[in-house]
Amino acid sequence: MAEIKTLVKRRKSAKNIQKITKTMALIAAAKYKVASRKVTAAKPYAESLNKLVADLMSRDSSLSHPLASKREKVQNVSLIVISSNRGFCGAYNTNVISYAKKEIQKLEEQGKNVSLHVVGKKASVIYNESSGPKELYLELEDANYDKVYALAELLIDQYLNNEVDEVRVVFMEYISATQQKPKATTFLPFPIDEYRSEESSGNYEVYPDVNEVLNYVVPQSIYSNLYRIFLEGAVSEHISRMLAMNKATDNAADMIKDLTRLYNRARQAQITSELSEIMGAVRSLQK
Fold first, then answer.
1. Model confidence, pTM
2. Res 220: pLDDT
3. C-alpha to C-alpha distance for 243 and 252, rounded to whole angstroms
4. Domains in the chain, ordered, with CATH?
5. Is the bond preceding 189 in cis, omega lying within 30 degrees of 0?
């Protein structure tokens, strides 16, 4: 009897967990759809700006921009690590944190001073372990453009004031619904070589002049790049949580089946035992 009660309680708990994980999977799926639409819209815009900047600066070797000029010596590096505030998203945060630690180790082995901008509660372990300059951001969830813009402004000011020589970002790159991988990329200075193409994007005139256009386009390109990176991180988080919760829901269903099977066996054994006792009592009365 005690075994049956235990099985009933365990099955009830498994059903409650299944309801929770199923709901979380549905919420994550809805957020994933919204975030993926934003990424789909933001990527072409960011890539077009990047190619435009690279194309304009490739036309004349004398052209330069302070946000696209590499430092002769890179000593102070600012590293942005983008994680999430919440868990239940599979190995998303674990992979980002592990990759970020390797990036920090690599930079420090090169003799560079690393300052951190840690985004998300889950990567606070890196924040706590660091003894250098550091900032922790817990309000940048789901890639709010205004807040990302403010962070980009801060990083640009630090770069222009020579407080840092390079800014890098560690995030979860979104490749497809079934593939995401941690990545480290250069945010500042603007990585011209990455977007430089042998083919010109078009024979067009620049008005009023190239320098004035670059002064506007380069910062816009940098803002859009950071926003796109945050969006990719958000999409990767939501799809990871959706897949993890779907897996948890399936596991709960399997557990419910196993517990139901055990319950039926225990109940059958109990009924058989009770029938045996009744039959034994009947035989005793008949003697």
1. 0.84
2. 92
3. 14
4. 26-242 (3.40.1380.10)
5. yes
